Amino acid sequence: MTAMIKSLCVYCGSSPGRIHAYTEAAHVLAESLVKRNIRLVYGGAGIGIMGKVADRVLELGGEAVGIIPKALAHKEVAHANLTALHVTQSMHERKMLMAELSDAFVALPGGIGTLEELFEIWTWAQLGFHGKPCGLLNVAGYYDALVSFLDHVLAEQFVKKHHHAMLIVETDPNALLDRYAAYQPPVVKQWLDKDQT
User: Fold this and answer.
1) N or C, which end of the chain is more exposed by having fewer CB within 10 Å?
2) Count of CB atoms situated within 10 Å of the CB of 152
3) What whole-number distance in Å separates Cα of residue 95 and Cα of residue 155?
4) Contact partners, residue 193, CB within 8 Å, separation at least 6
5) Does the keyword Coiled coil apply (predicted)?
6) How many domains is the chain partitioned into structurally?
7) CATH code for the domain in which residue 98 is found
């Protein structure tokens, strides 16, 4: 059964990054989401790449749902004009709600928090907690070194081939969303219940 994508969770930086290509990719992804009637779910900030993707979705009449912990609402400057903004008590609650509200997950360029969120949701897929597609939007080669490292992890037999293949990597947002729409999760034995994590 293929994935029905109604909401996409976007992990990305709360800073704009060094080059304008990151902002351009955020805008193109936003345009693709609105065109396909897919709701944006993201970290709730109004700054950086996070703010850019949400702003563009809203400009085009799409839906943008932000989820931000109370402690970061001021530091990351919570977006004031979202379709909905959920303020959580903790980072863990934030990530759980983002996962619950989303049918798929993608990382745009970002820092340590972006990587942590991506690896956690990918790990949950590996453990069989969900069968939703996860991926990287590799803008301007930003994730080239990470993709190469993950190939090395596979070659060194610390990850299985079908788990490695769960992470979809594309340079174009439309190609990524096309692959998400056709995604069929591998049959994965559930190692733990979510309550055991």
Assistant:
1) N
2) 10
3) 30
4) none
5) no
6) 1
7) 3.40.50.450
